[in-house]
Amino acid sequence: MSNANHKQNHADDQDNEISLVVGSLFNYSPAEDRESYEEEREWVQQLQDSLRQEGVIIDLMTNPGVSIWEGGIRRYGDLYRLSQAAAYIEQGKDITPLLNKKFTEEEDLDPILKQIIEGDLDTQFPHFIRPDGDPFFYLPIEFADPIIIPVEAEEGFEFDEDEDEGDDFVSFGSSPRLQHELYRLNTLLVQMQVPANHPVMRCLASLRQAADLSVTNDLPIVVW
C-alpha cells in the first residue's frame, strides 16, 4: 500500500516524526489513478474482511482518497512519554521526574508499558496505549478492545523494519474510545498542573484533534 509516500512527504514538510491523517485508507481515488486505486482496493478489502471476522463491521471502501485533516506529533519521544505518563498515573507513580527526563532512542521499553501492551496489565487507556505498528489506524466505530490483524506485506507497503518476517500486522483502535480516553487523560494532567506547552500536552492536543475530527466526520485516523 502506497501510503508510505504520503507519510514521508508530510513528515518532511512539517518536521513531524509521526504523522496523523484523518481520511480514507486509500491514497487514490479511481479518477486520480485507477491502477494505484485498484492495488489499494484489494488490500483495504482484505482488512475490512478481517475486521468483520473480529466482529467489527465497517465500510472502508467509501470516499477513496479523501483526506480532511493532516497533523502530527513533533517527536516520537513525546508520544512515548505521554504513554508512560498515562501508565504511571494509573499505578499511582509520580510523573514529575518522567516529564523532566529527555527521551533517547537507547531507552528500554518501560516495564509497565510493556505489561500493558502485552495485555498482562489492565489499563483504562487501552485504545491509546496498545495500538502499535507503522502505520496503525483508528476507526470511527465503537469496539471494546484494540484489534491486531496479521497481514502479508503488499508491494509499496512499509511495515516496521523491527518486525520479524512472518510477524507483520496491522492494529486498529476505536476513535470514539480514543476520544474518551484522551479526555480523561487530559483532565488528569491538567489537574496535575502539567503546563499546556509541555511536549506531552502538545502531543495530547494533536491526538485529541484527530480523534474529534474522526468521530465527527466518520473517517478513520491513519497514524504513521
Outline of this structure?
The chain has helices at about 5-15, 35-55, 75-90, 95-100, 110-115, 125-130, 175-190, 200-215, and strands spanning about 20-25, 65-75, 135-140, 145-150, 170-175, 220-224. The protein is α+β, with helices and mostly antiparallel strands and about 220 residues long. Helix 3 packs across helix 8 (about 200-215).
Radius of gyration: 17 Å
Q: Alpha-carbon distance between the termini?
A: 13 Å
Beta-strand proportion? 5-15%
Q: What is the tally of beta strands? A: 6
SS summary, helix count: 8
Mean of pLDDT = 88
Widest β-sheet, arrangement of strands: 2-1-6-3-5-4
Low-confidence stretches: 1-13, 154-166
Percent in helix: 40-55%
In terms of structural class, how would the helical and strand content be classed? alpha+beta
Shape label: globular
Give the SSE string: HEHEHHHHEEEHHE
Largest sheet properties: 6 strands, mixed
Kindly describe this structure.
The structure is a single chain. This protein has 224 residues and is an alpha+beta fold. The longest helix is centred in the N-terminal third of the chain and has 20 residues. It is globular, with a radius of gyration of 17 Å.
